[in-house]
Every structure is written in structure tokens, then in C-alpha cells.
Amino acid sequence: MIGRPLQSSGVGFTSQRVRDRLVERLKAQGIRNPNVLRAIGSVPRHLFVDEVLASRAYEDSALPIGFGQTISQPWVVARMTELILDADVAPKRVLEIGTGSGYQAAILAALGIEVHTVERIGDLLRTARKRFRSLGIALRSKHDDGHIGWAEEGPFDAIMVTAGAEAIVEGLIDQLAPGGTLVAPVGGGATQALVRIRKQMDGSLDIKEMEPVLFVPLLPGVVDR
Ligand code: SAH
């Protein structure tokens, strides 16, 4: 259950009307899943960025969240979420690598998914946890290097990597349940593509390259601050 937005009506730049306009825009850009659109319409994205950026929270763009990181563009969040929902079995337990602002995790939680999220920058994770608490969002998070995933809590029905790497982190595929879906931006530097991997019931992998995207890099190790 998502807490009430600070401003749920009216003409402010954080109003429900502004959020609905973002939903319309995502629809026009090909996002079809009604549950995903509903989740985007219900989660107050302006509470996941610094106050000075709140007026831009419902634009379809990535925004800085400090430490050289960004909150992903709403279209990307919607598309990745749609890709994991578009499986034969609806995902119940999901692992996200790269909590960042916490927005993607909040979207998953709004869909009734059991979310596990990992972030390497301590300060970002602390801020995200405060947001989860104040919005009444229940999920599991840990401060760690996402390259190792979260084996004790696996296997997961879906894994979402929200930082770019040259290749899929193989160890994460081991934490994917049969029938599960992994989505990740793959490719070094300026050219990345969203890759969707489906683990078949027999363990074989079905790999499909989707749209071009641009994410901050998946980095090794943890940052304590
Ligand atoms: N899902 C986030 C997007 C954050 S940007 C959101 O909705 O806001 C990518 C995030 O991945 C950054 O916060 C970055 O610190 C984190 N990250 C990068 N490499 C990581 C790693 N190895 N393990 C965990 N998090 C990582």
C-alpha cells in the first residue's frame, strides 16, 4: 500500500493530474500493461528525488540523485517492469540490483510483488529506506555489491539489474527460478540494450535483445558512506 501523495489533487506540479499525464505519455510510447500504468500513476515519483528537482519528477527523463547516479527514466522503469510481468507465471519474488532512489522498487511493491533490492552506495540506500518507511512500503534491502545477488533469499521469479554492464552477471542467472525472467542493460559505454533472459523449465536460456537504453555503470564493491 502506497502512502497518500503529499498533494493528491489540484494544479501543482506534483498533482495527480500531472502524474496522469505521464501515464498517458507512457501509453503513447507503447507501454501497454494496465497494472504497470496504474503503478506509475500511483507512486509519487517527486518524493524519490531531491526537492529542488520535484518540479521535473513527472517528465519522462532520468534525474540526478547524487553520487553520480540517476533515478531511471519512467519509460525505462515501465518497460522493464512490463518485461518481467509478461511471463507465463506472474512473478511473486523479485530481486533488484541498484536500489538508487528506490523508485523502481516502489513500483514493484505497488504491484504486490515481494521485493528484494541491493545497493552498493550506503548513503543512497539509507535515503531510499527512509522513503520506503515514510510511504509505508515493505520490502527487503541490503547494502552490498549486487554482483553477488542475494542467494540466501533466492531463487527469484525475476531479477532486474538497473545498472549497465558489459555482460550479464552469470551468478545472477543461478538465482533465477525456472520460468523466471532477468532484465538488464547490457553493453559498455554509450551503447547499451535492454536484454531479457528467460530461464526455461529445463534450465536452458532464451535470450532476447530489446530496446536501446542508457544506464549508469554497474560498479564493483561497496561504498560505505
Ligand atoms: N533503480 C534505481 C536506478 C538507480 S541507478 C531507481 O529506481 O532509482 C543505478 C544504481 O545502481 C545506483 O544507485 C548505483 O549505485 C547502483 N549500483 C551500481 N553498481 C552496483 C552494484 N554492483 N551493486 C549494487 N548497486 C549498484
Give the helix/strand layout:
Elements: H1 16-28, H2 34-42, E1 63-66, E2 69-71, H3 74-85, E3 93-97, H4 103-110, E4 114-119, H5 122-135, E5 140-143, E6 156-161, H6 170-174, E7 176-186, E8 192-199, E9 205-213
Parallel strand pairs: 3-4, 3-6, 4-5, 6-7
Antiparallel strand pairs: 1-2, 7-8, 8-9
Helix pairs in contact: 1-2
The site of S-adenosyl-L-homocysteine has 23 residues, from strand 2, helix 4 and strand 4.
Mind explaining what this structure looks like?
With 225 residues, this protein is of the alpha/beta class. It has a single domain (12-212), classed as Rossmann fold. It has helices at residues 16-28, 34-42, 74-85, 103-110, 122-135, 170-174, and strands at residues 63-66, 69-71, 93-97, 114-119, 140-143, 156-161, 176-186, 192-199, 205-213. The strands form 2 sheets. It has a 7-stranded mixed β-sheet. Strands 1-2 form a two-stranded antiparallel ribbon. Helix 1 (16-28) runs antiparallel to helix 2. The longest helix has 14 residues, at 122-135. It is globular. The model has no long low-confidence stretch (mean pLDDT 94). The site of S-adenosyl-L-homocysteine has 23 residues, from strand 2, helix 4 and strand 4. Belongs to the methyltransferase superfamily. L-isoaspartyl/D-aspartyl protein methyltransferase family. It is found in: Cytoplasm. Pfam families: PCMT.
